[in-house]
Amino acid sequence: MSTAPAEQRLHAESQAIRHHYDVGNDFYELWLDPTLSYSCGRWVGCDTLENAQNNKIAYHLDAIDAPRLQSVLDVGCGWGGVLQALERMPNINRAVGLTLSEQQARHIEAQPWGKVAVHVSNWQEYEPEQPFDGIISVGAFEHFAAPTDSIEEKIAIYRRFFSACRGWLKPGGRLSLQTIAYGAMAREQASRFFNEQIFPNADLPTLSEIAEAAQGVFEIERVENGRLDYARTCEHWYRRLSANRALAVERVGEEVVNRYLRYLKMSAYGFQFGKIQLLRLQLHALR
């Protein structure tokens, strides 16, 4: 059972995110698509990684009905793929991203975008000046709980997140959530390599935990399992990093490159055989 004080816990979460995402922007540029989307693409009708990632972004924008909105919050905004799409929408006048990565924030701040603001902030500390019409969160949810948390503590953390999102939304607003989740594998079977070297201090949710946490706060309108989408995405990332291995080693060292190649191969296997899932959820805020 986790007993760490709140401040200590937030610090640990920030350090864990930076361990992974602050390896170097120029490293990720070698094997991600041009949008720098570091999350599962959506391969329906797509044959390239870039198209799959743009299709994923379009899916989440559609889930919150973005063409009818004016303001959107992106929790865990990465290098700004969703924010860039929002910047291009004529109806959007305010797009805000939250990240714990200083390097991701600097990348976004360097873009010539006029509607976008980015904050290096944990969602638990964020207080918007005014509510949003919609919220998107892709790939952040799996970092909210730690392996030391009990199931009850995990659900409580997820419920705090859903309650925060409801408070940030205008009446009738929607949340589009994408997260990796446990499938046929129990949390006790999670790889030490992943927990210690790839995503330290992170634990995946299950669909039932998400549903219990959202009860009475959000109505779950749609759920999609895209685990085969993620297997294919990881396979593309693995091939792209392998093809750029020499340059990647120059930038971050052989040990880091080997670690990422191992992680991408293991992830593709896990999604392929259903040990882990990729959940996309459309949720409607309740009042």
Q: What is the number of helices?
A: 11
Q: What global shape is seen?
A: globular
Strand order of the largest sheet: 3-2-1-4-5-7-6
Strand element count: 7
* Helix-strand topology string: HHHEHEHEEHEHHEHHHE
State the share of residues found in helices, binned by percent. 40-55%
CATH architecture: 3-Layer(aba) Sandwich
> Quaternary status of these chains?
single chain
* Uncertain ranges: 16-20
What does this structure look like?
This protein is α/β, with parallel strands linked by helices and 287 residues long. The chain has one domain: Vaccinia Virus protein VP39 (Rossmann fold). The chain is built from 11 helices and 7 strands. The chain has a 7-stranded mixed β-sheet, with helices on both faces. Strand 4, helix 6 and strand 5 form a beta-alpha-beta unit. The radius of gyration is 18 Å and the shape is globular.
